[in-house]
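Q: For a teaching session next week I want to show students how multiple molecules come together into a single three-dimensional assembly. I've collected the sequence lines for a complex. Could you give me the predicted structure tokens for the whole thing so I can convert them for display?
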Amino acid sequence: MSTLSDEKPAIYRAGSRPGRRSPDLFQVLCWVASVATVATLAWMILQIGQQSWPAIKEFGLGFITGERWIPNRDQYGVLPFLLGTTISSLIALLFALPLGLSIAIFLSEDFLPLPIRQVVRFTVEMLAAIPSVVYGLWGIFVVIPLVQQWGKWLAKTFEDVPVLGVVFDGPARSNSMLTASIVLALMILPTITAISRNALVAVPATLREGSYALGATRWETIFGVLLPTAAPGIVAATILALGRAMGETMAVAMLIGNSDRLTWSLLKPAGTLASKLANEFGEASGIQVNALMYAALLLMGLTLTVNILGELVLRYTQRKTAGIR
Amino acid sequence: MADTEHFFTAAGAHRAGIRSFGNKVLNVVCVALALLTLIPLVSIVFLVLKNGLPLLTPAIFTELPPAAGQAGGGFGNAVVGTFQMVGIALAIAAPLGILSAVYINEYAPTSRLSNTVRFVAKLLTGIPSIICGVFAYAVIVLPKTGLIEAVQGWREGWFRDIALWIVTSLPSGFSAWAGGFALSILMLPTILITAEQALLGVSKAYREASYGLGATRFQTIWRIVLPDAVPAIMTGIMLSVARAAGETAPLIFTALFSQFWAQSLNEPTASLSVLIYNFSTLPYEHQQNMAWTASLVLVILVTISNVTAQVVFRKR
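A: Of course. Below is the structure for the complete assembly, covering every listed component.
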């Protein structure tokens, strides 16, 4: 694609030489559409910011550090949800990263014949196409019973272990952070796989050949040459997947148990910013709407930051691999 | 020298053996992990088919959702609602996305506005779908609720009645409009980015030939470039339709849900995805089975649009 865009300007500039043609109506129309696209994002930020302003004035930064969310008493704090969003996404990443990376390596190497690799690739693409609610429904009937079984065992086994005792603090519930994270991991797997695979495929063949020529085995080449060269791309994949996990709503809302309590245990019900919005917006009124808008603003800020970061890393990667060639 | 000769010593052969063994172990681990991903997908597809197929009868597309605990019924209104809202979203997002793509690729590929549009499109793809719902709620649902409350506060009389009638018939509130608007923001970046790629793929020679024959830029774009890019643009549109049809988060508090056939686009509207969400948490087996059947219908719809996108419109 980069080569295409490199040759592109010359011909267009010929067409848009000053004085040659005045802008026609269609051009104006297209310009308006472009401005409208940019304006949409600005409008979103402004609108949500404006709606959350009463809550920002009322609660300030205490909103972020507040541990209780009690609409009846006009008491609003999002710390449990902020932590829920962060922890569930990170745990999902913990599951998805090794798996996604393995698949990316599997797809870019020639372990098995091409048809089998294509089946795996198709599978991963299918995973991306399945709607979030269907994941939620599947989670209710498949993952919840699994976690129900293993959760009790985890809670009992790690009861007296220092850190893990807190992480797997019982009594274990099936609607929990762990359940949501497992399903989230599946949902972000395609993102990690696709971007990491692109990064691995973009590593010049000469580097691989050089490594083999020096007598390295396949995995010495993968760990010593391919992964380090593709590292920025893999980092970008991880960051973008994190952004996706943080914004994922329905499957999480169906599985996490939607508790308002602050907890560090993976085996207890929790809540995320997105699941809170999904659960309360429909029936909210008064200052509660503003508080929810404030929470939405936080979520938007969080995902935008993560995505911009991922995009920057990705651009850096592309510039860097272009240099190697 | 010792380094190059170690292959011929006993210790060297031993090390090479370990390296080769380690290599094989990692091969197996990697292949096993990759094939592991097949399990969840197979499980999802299997369960959706097994639990969804028994209720999949023609009646399910013509009847209304059963009340809690009741048997029978269908989700005809949800299928219609999903199509309505995806249609509204498409009507907003497709022109906006395609025209923007034409601008950033044909008219001003290197301008600052074009680069901003590309960046904004990237950012929009990363915005959580629920935020689109929140936005639609703020823009379409809230103002109407506010207006109705304000008008209801007026003095009684015919003037108030007329004002109330006008306000309640505005295209807003919890409605298909609000849901479609939320979905359109979700679709916009997909359509825009794929349309730009489609236009990029049109051969430079076509444009040069067109200009060479004396065509204006509008004629070139409208008669030469766009027709050639249509299949690829349609691919993007079908992909965005597939994604929007499956989305729930932007709809739960904009279109809400309805047990009845919608009389207009101005009232709460049912959709397949919200139906799955609502029914999956009910404690009744029949409703849960219906959620599976709705999932099956939804997955079929999504797969059809995806396959159409990949196969039918991809000529290049």
